[in-house]
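Students often ask why we bother encoding 3D structure as a string. The short answer is that it lets us treat folding as translation between two languages. Here is a chain of 329 residues written in the first language.
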Amino acid sequence: MRLGEARRHALLLGAGTLVVLALAVASLTVGVFDLSWRGLLEGGEGRLDALVLLASRAPRTIAVLLVGASMGVAGLLMQLLSRNRFVAPSTAGTVESASLGILVAMLLAPGAPVMVKMLIAAAFALAGTALLMTIVRRTPLASPLVVPLIGLMLGGVIGAATTFIAYRFDLLQSLASWTTGDFSRVLRGRYELLWLGGGLTALAYLAADRFTVAGMGESFTKNLGLDYRRVMVLGLVIVALVTAVNVVTVGNVPFIGLVVPNVVSLLVGDNVRRAVPWIALFGAGFVLACDLLGRTLRYPYEVPVGTVIGVVGAALFLFLLLRRSARVG
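And here it is in the second language, the structure alphabet:
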């Protein structure tokens, strides 16, 4: 990258960071309780403002940022490893597999710590993603659109089995909380697991070059002296853990891993090391904007962020799908 281009890239990234920070400050002020910044600075009667800020508003905003950034990067990893731009945790059965894992944990070990349930959900998510990769490798592909269709069908089968089991054991209400993304229940002490997703996002950035090489195929990777299987396993483990952490903590937030990497690719190109910070930033800003929209549309009531992103993300997905189809045609 030339010096002028690098400086321009850094300036744009800085401007994007300022926009996300402005959205984060707006997120801290929106809510039923009228938060007073003057009260926070003066103390005394402002202690209630401080309590609301530290126990509810700040944890919620941090959770939104972590979910948006980590799910966006997880989607990029899946697209690199499957060599298909329309694959993401929400279209590959990964989210449905994680929900099935949580349900199994609820049935077999209802009193287990959250970390144990998260690990069980991650194991199921990893198995579901690996199953999709196996099916894709053995399927003669006529079009890149076939892969997400296979993922959606696999996710539908796993989701139907999960719903049936939840119905038989009277756990449909609990299942609904994992399948609909909602940040309204995020409080201090109930979201810290999401920092693990932030750490995994940083790990994905450090290994970005290896994932780029793996995305060019097994033979190419082996010719460069890299262990293709080990890179694949690392990528799938990161995707499974990020998905499990997010589903356990806030539920399924759809379309982030699908639309965010594709939009960033249109704007800054396919250089993975350069794209990862943009994907993390754009993913965090996208979820933050949708969360603010859901909190203000029917104020003082709230529309779950999973519903808002479902509508906005579906529109973006259709745009990308039609744009891709026009290119193929």
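Translate back mentally: Residues 140 and 189 are 48 Å apart (CA to CA). Keep this in mind for the problem set.
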